[in-house]
Amino acid sequence: MPDDISNLLNSRKNKQIMIKLRSDKVLTGTLKDFDVHMTLRLDNAVDVSDNRKDLGSVLLRGDNILIISIPEDEPQK
Predict the structure, then answer these.
(1) Among residues 34, 2, 20, which one has the least CA distance to residue 64?
(2) Looking at the chain, which terminus has fewer C-beta neighbours within 10 angstroms, N or C?
(3) Best CA proximity match to 58, nearest among 23, 24, 34, 74
């Protein structure tokens, strides 16, 4: 299972993803990097929860992430 997740995230580098956090915030951004602890680095991050707010580059700790979503318009490989 961890290899499947790593492979999926590797295929999404430099592409848009959506993240739901434990705080119920939802962010979108370009996945730049990740590590074995699911720490993610996003560029051009936007908080789309309530009012749209540009965040720029963000680093998200893996234990704060509930869901990682891939946009429907891009097929998985």
Answers:
(1) 20
(2) N
(3) 34
For residue 39, the SS3 value is coil
74 has pLDDT over 60: no
| SS3 label, residue 63 | helix
For the domain made up of 2-69, the CATH class stated in words is mainly beta
- What pTM value is reported for the model? 0.85
Q: What is the per-residue pLDDT across 40-54, written as a single tens digit (0 to 9) for each?
A: 999 999 999 989 999
Cα separation, 43 vs 24, in Å, equals 20
Q: How far is CA 67 from the centre of its chain?
A: 8
Tokens at residue 55, please?
Answer: 């965040």
